Fold each of these.
Amino acid sequence: MPSWLRKAAVLLALAAIWEGYARWLNNPLLFPTFVDTVKAFFSAIASGELPRAAAYTIQLLLKGYLAGLLFAGLLTAFASMSRIGADLLEILTSMFNPLPSIALLPLALIWFGLGNGSIIFVLILSVLWTVSLNAYSGFRSVSPTLKMVGQNYGLSKIGYVARILIPGAFPSILTGLKVGWAFAWRTLIAAELVFGVSSGSGGLGWYIFEQKNQLLIPNVFAGLLTVILFGLIVENLIFRTIENRTVRRWGMQV
Amino acid sequence: MLAVRGVTLQYREQRNLVTATYRISFNVGESDRFVVLGPSGCGKSTLLKAVGGYIRPVEGDISLDGTPIKAPAPDRVFVFQEFDQLLPWKTVKENIVFALTASGKLPRRQAEERAMLNIEKVKLTEFANSYPHTLSGGMKQRTAIARALAMEPRILLMDEPFAALDALTRGQMQEELLQLWQETKFTVLFVTHSISEAVRIGTRILILSAHPGQVKAELNRDECNESKLQELLFSA
């Protein structure tokens, strides 16, 4: 039996258990049935409410993620060029990596006010440390032989970084990008859930929060389902594809 | 052509300053297959890196065609022992094209032609579009040799290129290297710790002692055999 078929069977079984339990409980306010959730999901999509919320969340996420990558790139470059930079990276990452960046949201709200500014701030922090740490250790673990080969063919400094160091460190960089993405996604939903309401914006977290206030529980479930779906698509489709086309094809998995 | 005069090399290992070679001198002539033979720890790899321009001597000087060697350059191409000298993200062909274009030797079109020519020489035509991790050790080393030869360097620097191969493949690779040499008579500086390999590959053989590496003898291939080398290598 192929693996996708096995997994589909497991999913189907889970849906059946959900449906059975919800029917037995018979309390749609606490736990709506699977069928109701799916119905709510599709009607929220049809009404455009859910796609709008999702689009809002994703553009916010992309902004924060890309800004985070930019800062991570700068920090890594600084760390690779000087010993002080390396120390700085090491100290900062060991300090801030254990700190969930969502914990800085209250402060961010004071500094940047209610709104997207503070959310992007915590997003940047959620991405920055993992990505720079992974990229930096990736650069350091590029094999000395490969570095010597790069120098042998007379590459310029930029050429050397772009054509030897970055591809050589790519497995590590990709891991950083993946973990960074996962952190950012979870941070953003949490931030929207708790504070999105006050900023009056319309992301997915906010959608879930608002539907709960109106006791539209099947819609809450539909919102959660959307969060899961997007996570799955990005992590298993986009990143998997990148992985298959690069590190797997090159035999470079870490 | 390549002149090494009184070269002393040192490197730092933790706190200690290690002298790898002490006042080594030799000359490599056009189309020589010059073998540096010595036990492990005689600094022969370090010496080769100095010729490559990766290390600066603390004493003495190295020059190629009269110009002192200061930095790595594509006129001295390395073939290493390690299999990871091929860029894993490039196919066999792309590895060679990369070398030719990165060094500015040829534009892409001609680089591809020359790459295929050299791939054919090392009998890897079928594998031109394979990624290195799918190749056997011998095939990887052949690719590295093809890449180096495609560059048409003034001198080819080989650092125990066959040491990580099984005995059968090693013998075959030595044979192929000699055949390739017959075609273009390239100049090669070849480092090894294997006496039989030195005898097979070399036209001239330089014998080094260990800790630090010093010249014990320099011989023509026709004035020595394995047992004589053995004697020289292990004499006090």
Note: Chain A has a mean pLDDT of 90.
Amino acid sequence: MSALADLRAFWAAARKEWRLLRRYPTQFLGFLFWPIALPAAYVFQARGYAGDSQAALDAFAARTGTAEIAGFLFLGWAAYMWISMILWGPGTALRTEQVRGSLEALFMTPASRLVILFGPVVSQVVWALWMFAVVGVAMTVFFGVPIGAPAALRALVVILVAVPALYGLGALFAAVVLRFGEVGALVQAVRGVFTVFCGMTFPIIILPEWARAVALSLPPTYLISDLRKVMLRGADLAELVPDLAVLLVLGLAICAAAVIAFRRTERHARRGGSLAQY
Amino acid sequence: MYRPSVRMNDELGLELRAALAIARKELRMARRYPLNLVNEVLQPLYQFLLPSVLLGATFFVGGRAVGLEENTGTTDLAGFLFLGMLVAGLVATGFWELAFSFKREMDAGTLEPLFLTPTSPVTLVLGRALSGMLIAIGASVVLLAIATAFLGASISGAVIVAIPALLLAAASMVGIGFLVAAGVLLLREPNFFVDSTNFAFSMLCGTAFPVLALPLFLRWIAYLLPPTYALDLIRVGGLGTRPLLAPALEWTVLVALAGVSLLVGLAAFRRVEHHMRVRGTLGQH
């Protein structure tokens, strides 16, 4: 199958998912509610922890490098929500096809596996961008965090550099779905690891040394830290080159692992005839 | 000779036995999925409690939660959050085990046959409430033990005095569960409705932070929710926090709001159930 035909199949898969999404309009409310409500709850929590104590606020600023509590938390949770979408994305798409009984037929088509894995996820890119926009508006309007166009553009670069690592993780989860059928518990556990280690609500400097080492081996740590640096501290991209390089290398390694895992699982599923089983 | 009171007692006894049977069935089903039971403890721990404790530690001055102390009168951050989880578990049971269980029956196509049995739908809800709350309380006790053993939480034995507040909170959540169940029956695609209202309700009750940290208009909503007072009384007993109102007044308001929740929830549920029976829409989803 030619690259052009693959591209058309990719577009068709994305359009199909978008159409399905439109059939359930209550999901749109969720995409408006959660990007505001979830981080806002943690902002109220931070207010509860700070009280009127200047010493507590100073301690926060010293540990995080910023006094923008709302900005700090909103950016952490925006990254969390994006990661959640990606972790659920490709795996859930395959699982849905499996439950509908169309997965085996899908694997019989000449379309590239990349189309099957990432075609349905393209519609989620729209939601990821929407979610970041809602977070930006909420930060500015409700909490007065200033966001300039240059900082937003630098943040976009950080997000793009993180794409291979995060979508690679999504593809790894898809391999697990093909192998074991169910991915919910694993996604919850991995999300938990990211929440505890990657600094969504706190700076990783407060973690014990062993936990910090774990944090520095996980791509979301760099994504969150760099988003905060460019948006809240005005850092330019040159300062972030070492972090972004680590993120890219991790991304390439995860993508390579995902390709190997996916091929092996597919071969196993074809031989065992388990594609249609769930 | 017709003796209405005896017959009423018999009927009540039968409904009670049915509720207990339903609770036993739900607990037996829960035991069949031990990983889900483990998740009842692990999920709140890693998705909410640990990130919240770590956020709190970012504000520590000299190892003490001085800001929290200003707001609440305690520096015991872990105790504050883990006691909050106790009430958050009850709230989640009201929303997911009571109200959302109707959606599960709808999806399985068993809601209409279920409503045709001689057991009252109210009894079905109460049975599920009982099992759900037992699981939630069990998970909270394990979480409190973890907080005490590893995170330095120090809950005073005086918390026992607040156990009736927990029971009143459970009763009020049954009422609110009925109310939300009415919404579930009407909406038919209620995932977002249940998820978002559960989250907002739980946050407004102060499970994650002191109610005083809320903006004033949200604080007034918090004051209308019965678990707000139950949680406050539990924290006063267990951690010696400053109460929102005088404790005697909090008990009075809690009893009144629990009663109102039960009455309003039950009335709303019965009305929607009647409406759906008349329209013949119980089997649709």
Note: Chain A touches chain B at residues 24, 26-27, 29-30, 33-34, 37-38, 41-42, 44-53, 55-57, 59-60, 63-64, 73, 185, 188-189, 191-193, 195-196, 200-203, 206-207 (CB under 8 Å).
